Amino acid sequence: MKERAGPLSHLTVVEFAGLGPAPFAGMMLADQGARVIRIDRPVKPGKGGGMAALTARHSDVLSRGRESITLDLKQPQAREVALRLVAQADVLIEGFRPGVMESLGLGPDVCLQRQPKLVYGRVTGWGQTGPLAHAAGHDINYIALTGALHSTAQRGGPPTPTPGLIGDFGGGGMLLAFGVLAAVSHAQHSGQGQVVDAAITDGSALLGALVHGWRSSGLWNAEAGTNNGDGGAHFYDAYACADGKYISIGSMEPPFYALLRETCGLTDPAFDRQWDPAHWPALKERVADVFRQKTRAEWCALLEGSDACFAPVLDLDEAPLHPHNQARGTFVQVNGITQPAPAPRFSATPAGACQPVGEAGADTQALLASCDYTDAEITALLAAFNPSK
Known about the structure:
- By secondary structure, the chain is of the alpha/beta class.
- The protein is built from 15 helices and eleven strands.
- It has a six-stranded parallel beta sheet with strand order 3-2-1-4-5-6, sandwiched between helices. A three-stranded antiparallel beta sheet has the order 7-8-9, covered by helices on one side.
- A hairpin with a 2-residue loop joins β10 and β11 (337-340).
- α1 crosses α7 and α7 packs across α8.
- The longest helix is centred in the middle third of the chain and has 26 residues, at 165-190.
- It is elongated, with a radius of gyration of 25 Å.
- The relative contact order is 0.13.
């Protein structure tokens, strides 16, 4: 087993392989040094398109930094292996529908009997309870139910789906990672394990806390795209440039707004009414006309690095090449795959180098040995798990 670096190097996590938020939480924990043992499903040959292509092992960045054991959890011997791994762990994370782990004989009651201090982390779309708990869904559905998707619309336009950012990862994976670490802190002081129920609906609602406060105070309109912060204001939006590329501005504060006006030639007294929403639509049209007069690169030369609160809108290929991102090492390349580097940064316990994605089941034999199986038992288990070999 490789020596791990980072503030979580003392933790062992058992992750049951899944999609989206649970793997993201596992990646975050592994990035910061936790030993994450991933229980992968046996690979089924012949599946290469559709959803299978989205989770192809070589490009599945969310799976980086793990040890992997392949188990068919419908087999009694495999369930026992999983329970032995759990008995040595601090944390378990899973992202199945409510009841699936219980049906496999791996629910919280069983696992906490094996390891009383275990933190049993569960992430689902709708949560473990509630009328929708057992319904299928995806990120777009969960954030739709909490008002978060509504807030992505431009004025008079439809909501715009985000690729998992608000729900699966912000309101799901990060919520789970935070939850299990809070529960680990409690377990280390009390010796008491517990279940963490991380629902994406709860998490995406939580991300909207500030907006709910504004709405309750009359500072936020129900109509999307009419507010400061959602593209309603002329000084807080993305604008097209002469070359068809985009820039973003967020010049809310008076000195920042004044600098934007000065640099962009917005001298008309109409722009003095910065916080009068009745004038925002007309002012937005005028600001849009100004930004269409130069290319994105020309606007960067004028505004980037200033206090006008400006940044170019970069695509996924451009972002890793930006000088700021390169200076901070925000992106790294591992085995030819460009990906975000571990974050946040720690001064006393920095994370190690970003780890590659290993093959499913690559550590099966070593992990069986760590569970105190004899050589003969390991041989028998491997034969039972892979009868065709």
